[in-house]
Amino acid sequence: MSAKSGITTRYASSEDAVLVHAMIIEMAHAMDAQAQVRSTVEDFANAMSDDNEDIHVLLAERGKVPVGVTIFFLTFSTWRGTLGVYVQDIFVAPEGRGTGIGKRMLSEVAAWASERGADHLRLSVDRDNVGAQAFYEKIGMKFCDEEMIYRITGAKFEELGSGL
Q: What is the Cα Rg of the chain in Å?
């Protein structure tokens, strides 16, 4: 945990699933994408349980009120041959923007990952989120246009998983 200007950060546990899910809902509202969120509090509680090391969550709080969340996990780069960290979501509530919370959370995630042998951080950003894009570039991140993200969901995912 660290403190600066009344903001503390801490790693969340399954007991924080309600707070974390609420932050994701708030992020979806900010992106006008709330209809896309199908996750539940129980999904987060299960994913964040002590038995599951797949995801990690960093919360930023002012007092007991969450003002930021970062969800991340370790990855392995087959080209680099090294561990990395992927930031699935980072969100700072409007009242916390411009205060350094976003940079602080990414810095803490990078330090956490570095302690585990990682040497890079990746994330994706919505094409329309120009504010986030400017923030990432300001802290030294670079846009990589040599890759495109593909996804498969729903019935097509099930079909693929069943061996076509």
A: 17
- Residue 42 gets the label, from left (phi > 0), alpha (psi -120 to 50) or beta, of alpha
Burial, 90: exposed, middle or buried (Cβ in 10 Å; 0-12, 13-18, 19+)?
Answer: buried
Residue 14: C-alpha distances to residues 17, 36, 42, 119 (Å): 5, 23, 9, 28
Q: Is pLDDT at 1 greater than 80 in this prediction?
A: no
What sign results for the dihedral spanned by CA atoms 51, 56, 61, 65? negative
What's the pTM? 0.89
Retrieve residue 66's tokens: 């969450």
Domains delineated in the chain:
2-161 (3.40.630.30)
